[in-house]
Design goal:
The chain is α/β, with parallel strands linked by helices. The protein has 13 helices and 10 strands. The strands form 2 sheets. The protein has a 6-stranded mixed β-sheet. A 4-stranded parallel β-sheet has the order 5-4-3-6.
């Protein structure tokens, strides 16, 4: 039985912060130096987490909040790499097995890291993984399912980042997060709106995979029929599920669609200015902010992850 959708309360997020305090880093909020005439943009560097991505926040909270009985069965999740690492990291801390239904086109770096954390990998196509994400089940897996985005505790874990953003930048006017399944922006948006209701929360999607922007235009959850695979593998889904539409609507103010070239430029800029590596999804928020559609600053851009093969990163930023 799938639990009904309910709002992520500030109490849920505060409890998550206490639960994951020993596992998750409070990541720095770094001002991006764009010169005296440039916009005021801050980078929330979630690529510095132990798994080099924000998903450890949700994974750690979701696994820690399971009942002893549910945890004893082991856990499984679905992932293109970052959620799998987050759940596997938490499972290893509890000494329980973890299986990841992994999208077979995920970067080798992400597959290797999941295995290194003790996860058993079940490779599947993107379409098969999305079916599992929508149905919350996969044949042959009897462990406890930890959904990589449509899970209340997972999302509350991501909300802890929103608390940090508001505390470290009290005058923040806009927060931008990449949208894949929608868990990141729902968690961050829930915290930000609870603390600073006037702050805008915007999504960022690549033009090759922008179902949330399409859903906003159409007034309801949509499939993105022109979806294309790209180096932005950690965001940009094929559709918005009805449940995630319900979650995002109250806390998200809009979405900005960017080109792959804009995303590549943002990856290069983060590396040049902050000496940090962002994967494609991790640079979407900055690419969106640089379009000017995010309004005046301070704008906080969530650099959601940095898990990318180094050869591929070098190829992308030096073309």
């Amino acid at each position: 039985m799938i639990a009904p959708v309910r709002p992520i309360s500030i109490e849920d997020i505060e409890q998550a912060r206490q639960r994951i305090a020993g596992t998750v880093l409070r990541t720095p909020l770094v001002k991006l130096d764009l010169g005296s005439d440039g916009p005021d943009i801050r980078l929330k560097l979630e690529n510095l987490q132990p798994t080099n991505a924000y998903k450890i926040r949700g994974g750690a909270n979701a696994v820690a909040n399971l009942s002893d009985e549910a945890r004893a069965r082991g856990v499984w999740t679905i992932s293109a790499g970052n959620a799998g690492q987050g759940v596997a990291y938490a499972a290893r801390a509890f000494g329980i097995p973890c299986t990841v239904v992994a999208i077979e086109t995920a970067p080798q770096t992400k597959l290797d890291r999941m295995r290194a954390l003790g996860a058993t990998i079940v490779p599947v196509s993107y379409d098969r993984a999305w079916v599992a994400a929508e149905t919350h089940e996969f044949p042959g897996l009897e462990a406890t399912f930890v959904h990589p985005f449509d899970n209340h505790d997972f999302i509350a874990g991501h909300g802890t980042m929103g608390l940090e953003i508001v505390e470290d930048c009290p005058d923040v006017r806009t927060v931008i997060c990449a949208i894949g399944g929608g868990g990141l922006i729902t968690g961050v948006g829930s915290a930000v709106k609870a603390r600073k209701p006037d702050t805008k929360v915007l999504g960022a999607e690549p033009e090759t995979a922008a179902p949330y922007a399409l859903s906003l235009r159409e007034g309801g959850p949509q499939k993105f029929t022109d979806w294309q695979a790209s180096f932005v593998d950690g965001a940009g889904g094929k559709s918005v599920t009805e449940r995630m539409w319900q979650r995002m609507q109250p806390v998200v103010d809009g979405s900005i669609t960017v080109t792959l070239d804009q995303t590549r430029d943002a990856m290069r800029l983060i590396a040049e200015k902050s000496r940090a590596i962002a994967e494609g999804a991790g640079a979407l928020a900055l690419a969106a902010a640089l379009t000017g559609q995010g309004g005046g600053g301070p704008i906080v851009c969530v650099v959601s992850g940095g898990n990318i093969d180094l050869d591929k990163f070098a190829e992308l930023v030096t073309d």
